[in-house]
Hints:
Helix content is 11%, strand content 29%. With 152 residues, the chain is mostly beta strands. It has a 4-stranded antiparallel beta sheet, with no helix packed on it. A 4-stranded antiparallel beta sheet has the order 2-3-8-5.
Amino acid sequence: xxxxxxxxxxxxxxxxxxxxxxxxxxxxxxxxxxxxxxxxxxxxxxxxxxxxxxxxxxxxxxxxxxxxxxxxxxxxxxxxxxxxxxxxxxxxxxxxxxxxxxxxxxxxxxxxxxxxxxxxxxxxxxxxxxxxxxxxxxxxxxxxxxxxxxxx
Length: 152
């Protein structure tokens, strides 16, 4: 249930092409006392739930909702960006700016796609840099609107 609030919030933001930063990280969060002030418990981390300090995701809460693909750099105007967390399908649509020659980049979190991910693009070519968790997409000039889909 903890993941429902961030899922809904992030979906509403993406549906409206808005950008946000999740900042509620309370390093000393506990299951008994939450964020240790105001009786709130919204931290995306809890030391009580951290089984392995060497694992970046250990102690994470609602990470399936908070850690999601997103358009990091777009060579034009963002038209659509959505992520279906249940089916793990990300969709990006943008109109390219002919003056931008750099490729677009999409953050592809290992947390969502630990075994890799199928990629479909409307045109051009792509490369997945698994180490950096980034999809680099170079579109062609033949189309004005381009689509990137992660997942099936």
